[in-house]
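Two quick folds needed for the group meeting slides. Do the first one here.
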Amino acid sequence: MLPAKGPWPHPYYEIPDAFLDVSFVDAAGAARTVRVRHKVIGDGPPLVLVHGLMTSSYSWRYVYASLSKRYRVFAPDLVGAGETDKPVDLAYSVANVARFIDAYLGEIESGPVYLVGNSLGGLYGVATILRAPERVRRFVLMHAPGYPFLRTRALHALLGAPGLGGPLASLVASVSRRWPRAFIAKNVHYLRKDMMSEEECAEYGGQFATEGGARVFARILEESLDPDEHATIIGELQRRKRAGEAFPCPVKVLYATKDVMVPASFGPRFHEDIPGSELVWMEDASHFLQVDAPERTVDQILSFDEVAGS
């Protein structure tokens, strides 16, 4: 039995939904326009929060209030997630989502932003910065995948297997649509089990409410976890390091010491492959630092930015 709400109050439903159209050219050369739902709160320098797989702008609910005292906070539902459009014919590779984020940043701000990415949102952030370095002035990377990981490789291989991938993707879509509460509760992990709530299951489960949304999720699950594409991104970081090329902006690598979703060992590996980055460990937290330890996460975001003391 899950509690109706999480352990702490949050302003998520008090922040009005805002919408904008974002146009970009995908990796296949097709022009796209996506209607994006995002949360916007506060005044000050722009700070953009990028969520990961299976979540939405709701994943940042416990940090909006504190961050908005210093920044104008933008938190989009990424293409294919939340209340943003879910084109069924879009390839949901990391590269394509980075193209979308690049265009989104151009729509909301003429200059560079402070970017924070959690989980797959962290890898999206790396890919976006490598693609469009002028968009980001500072970056916090939280529990991103990217390095070889057996579970990721196995899942991608199964979903893409000839004769098996199609039926398995259909099964994922069917299960997520028919039993969204159980699907979310089983696959979104926190340090404490009582962090999960009925409110959260309803929020994240909404993206599976239609057959199209559920099928898009199954595609995101396969295409965004492509180990070859991840290796290409990491390879570019390592190439730049060998060539003595600085990463385009300062980076803080923020990881918890425990994570059942992405190995904590990836933190030091990103730190090593991004010369000059700062590695910070957080105890008593897990994959979703902004949920497990919101106050400490906010402190780390503020302390990394030169405007924090202004």
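Then this one, please, same format:
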Amino acid sequence: MSNLPIFDIAGSALQAQSVRMSTIASNLSNADSVAGSPEAVYKPLEPIFQAVTSREDRNLTGVQVKEVTQSQAAPIKRYEPNHPLADGEGYVYAPDIDPVAQMVNLISTSRNYQAGVEMLNTAKELALATLTMGR
């Protein structure tokens, strides 16, 4: 941890939002994918965040990705007998991904990431101003 914990806190926020952006990108990329069985369907991802606390004073010092979970939602079953991946009954299976909800999450994540960058820039400016106070 640095002498200015704001940099560690903001850095952890940027890392967490980066993971969230990656999971959203993966979900959107696979939204139209299909499989020949429910077991083979892409399962949407969701990061789980948890607060990180300082051992010394128990103050919050950032956030971390505890884990990235896979959705347990049932896949969408579609009758497409001519599809090359269709099962013996003519069905293909698609992940239950709502692209609109994913885009809303992406916008929120992008705003959170931007806030983290602004936090870093402000902290840097204040630290530099502090260093030049005695001049």
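Slide caption for protein two: The longest strand covers residues 60-70.
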